[in-house]
Amino acid sequence: MVVYLTIFIFAAAISGALAGGRGGFRLTVPKHLMVSVFEWFGEMGIFCKRLLRAALAPPYEFGELLRQCDEVGSKSLPLVALAGAATGVVLSLETHDSLARFGAKSLLPAVIVFSIIKESGPTITALIVSGRVGAGIGAQLGSMKVTEQIDAMEASAVAPYKFLVATRVLACVLMLPLLTLASEFCGIFMGWITNTLSEPISLRLFLENGFKNMLFSDFIPPTLKTMVFGLIIGLVSCFQGMRTRGGTEGVGRSATSSVVLSSLLVVLADVLLVRLILTIWG
Fold first, then answer.
1. What is the DSSP letter of 202?
2. SS3 content of the chain, % helix, strand, coil (to 5)
3. Are 96 and 196 in contact (CB under 8 A)?
4. Is the pLDDT of residue 198 over 60?
5. CB under 8 Å to 116, separation ≥6 — which residues?
6. Cα separation of 145 and 169, whole Å?
7. What is the pTM of this model?
8. What single string gives the DSSP state of each residue in 39-67?
9. I want to staple 190 with a disulfide (CB 3.0 to 4.6 A). Which of 85, 127, 226, 248 is the partner?
10. Residues 226-232: what's their mean pLDDT?
């Protein structure tokens, strides 16, 4: 966990340096490095406060929320499904030979199901979404910032935090669990197909062996933790986009930093959430 935290601190500092222009490269000095990290967290806290205040106050932008759910959810589904299917194939190929050495090939369905549902599915889905959606949100809001469209919205009495930020963050939170379920389905199904090609087994028997020892408490926490991943992706991407400076070059930096920081925070949050889940549910 210390390694992840160190990586995140350096990434946050580099992101702040990039967002600050050419002179920001002087942040390699440790003192300025820590100042940049604390500035980033402070600005993020102010951003979250403004977002919460705007999101809770009526009226609510349900139409824009539905449009963002379509952007985040349905348009990410093919990529997420492909990643889940590839995960299932790789797990089936790798674990088949390993279990065969110990005479435990009958445990292959359970290994695939448990691995995908409890860890591989949620984490890979979050990383895929952070790459696609995070970059898109960062670039979109960044371009609106540098072209002063957000200032024009404020002048027109339209709250940008309500219309632009809150809808995107909530869409990420709502869509991540559904995308995770789709990824897990594709992974388990392709794991069965890969296993069937070497040793034929019916889908019903594969699922019975896979889910035989799985409890409801094994399924719910890993799925719900993806809501935290969605919150991280939405917050970081919108935050990096809204603080864009420097024209088109700044838009590129915002898109890049959105992907890097959201991915690193997802990995770090996964470590903490897994520990929390094990402590609460055992």
1. -
2. 90, 0, 10
3. no
4. yes
5. 84, 87, 88, 91, 184, 187, 188, 191
6. 18
7. 0.83
8. HHHHHHHHHHHHHHHHHHSSS--HHHHHH
9. 85
10. 93
- Given a contact cutoff of 8 angstroms between Cβ atoms, the answer to whether 164 and 144 are in contact is yes
Q: How many CB atoms lie within 10 A of CB 258?
A: 29
Q: Which of 189, 52, 37, 163 is nearest to 109 (CA)?
A: 189
d(CA 211, CA 224): 19
Angle among Cα 29, 30, 33 to the nearest 5 degrees reads: 85
Closest CA to 73 of 142, 170, 186: 170
Could you please report the per-residue DSSP string of 214-225?
Answer: --HHHHHHHHHH
189 band by pLDDT with thresholds 50, 70 and 90: very high
Query: How many residues are present in the chain?
Result: 282
